[in-house]
Structure formats: structure tokens, C-alpha cells
Amino acid sequence: MAKPKTAEEKNYKIVAENRRARFDYAIEEDIECGIMLEGSEVKSLRTGKAQIAESYAAVEDGELWLVNSYVPPYEQAKTFQHDERRRRKLLVNKRELAKLWSATQREGMTLVPLVLYFNHKGRAKLKIGIAKGKKLSDKRETSAKRDWQRQKARLMKDHG
Q1: Across-strand partners of 60?
Q2: Integer Cα distance of 86 and 73 in angstroms
Q3: Distance of CA 99 to the CA centre of its chain
Q4: pLDDT reading at 8 higher than 70
Q5: Using CA of residue 28, residue 135, residue 57, residue 119, what is the dihedral sign?
Q6: Of 119, 121, 68, 57, which is closest to residue 91 (Cα–Cα)?
Q7: What is the pLDDT of residues 52-61, one digit of tens each?
Q8: Rg (Cα) of the chain, in Å, rounded?
Q9: What does DSSP say about strands 13-17 and 124-133: parallel, antiparallel, or unpaired?
């Protein structure tokens, strides 16, 4: 018989994941931040059709913004509809914002959204990675390593 889920497990839900980010970038560190959304955006996110693969985060005028993320329109919200690709403000504390600013301006890093999810309290959160772009040879190395892990797992399964 299945164990009943607790309230924490019920509310946690991954909405969108940028799976290509770990292939294209070397993630140095990741930070969880809140995201300011309109009501129709929250309802739309609960359906799980958002996309963050082509988006990025940027520090502008002392604020952190998520640019070019896609949240589809919510069909039941007729009058108060949101813009699908609008810039959304991200919520972090001042110390984290200063760290993000210095990483992008001084060290030449990129802020890449990794996962958009609802936490155990039911609040929308975004995990951002402080990343450095990989060269083509690094991507090949990552791909070769992943293939070897798959092959090794297959051999272990077959020959135990």
C-alpha cells in the first residue's frame, strides 16, 4: 500500500527545466530566488507548460530580471491576461544581488535559469546558475563522459 504524501511532497512541483543549460554551461554555483508573477501567470504555471530554455537573467539598475521566459496565456482569464514573454522581476536579498552583479560584470559569467518550480509552500521559485560558457571541446568531453556512464551501467546490468 502506498504511503500517503505529506503536504510538503504534494505542493512541490517542477514546472519547467532547462536541461540544456548543464551541457552548454559549466555551472559554478546556483541560487534560489523568488519570482514576481501576476495571478493569471500563476494559474498558467500550475498547468506546467512554461519554458525557460531560451531565457536568461540580468542585473539591471540594482534589480534582477528574468528575460525571455515563456508563460502561456491562461485561457480562463479573459479580462486580466498577461503578456507571455514579459520581463519578470526576480527576488533575492542584497548580498546575493551584489554577488550576482560582480559575477556578471567583473568575472564575465552568465546567469542561466535552471529550474522553475513550486516549493513545498506552494510558492513559485526559480533556481539560477552562475555559469561560464563551455567551449566545443568541453561539450564533447561532457558528451563522451555521459555515453561512458550509460555504457558502464548497461554492462553492469547485463553482467552483474
Answers
A1: 63
A2: 12
A3: 18
A4: no
A5: negative
A6: 57
A7: 999 989 899 9
A8: 19
A9: unpaired
Other Cβ atoms closer than 10 A to 75: 11
Q: Residue holding cell 568575472?
A: 107
Which of the four pLDDT bands, split at 50, 70 and 90, describes residue 112? very high
Distances (CA, A) of 131 to 6, 29, 89, 104, 140: 35, 7, 20, 9, 18
Q: Which residues pair with 9 in a beta bridge?
A: none
User: Residue 84 in contact with residue 73, Cβ under 8 Å?
Assistant: yes
CA distance linking residue 149 with residue 73, whole number of Å: 40
Residue 128 amino acid letter: I
How many other C-beta atoms lie within 10 A of the C-beta of residue 130? 20
Could you read off the pLDDT of 46-83 as tens digits, one per residue?
888 889 999 989 899 989 999 999 988 887 777 777 77
Q: How confident is the model at residue 5 (pLDDT cuts 50, 70, 90)?
A: low
For 67, residues 6+ apart whose C-beta sits below 8 A from its C-beta are 55, 56, 57, 58, 87
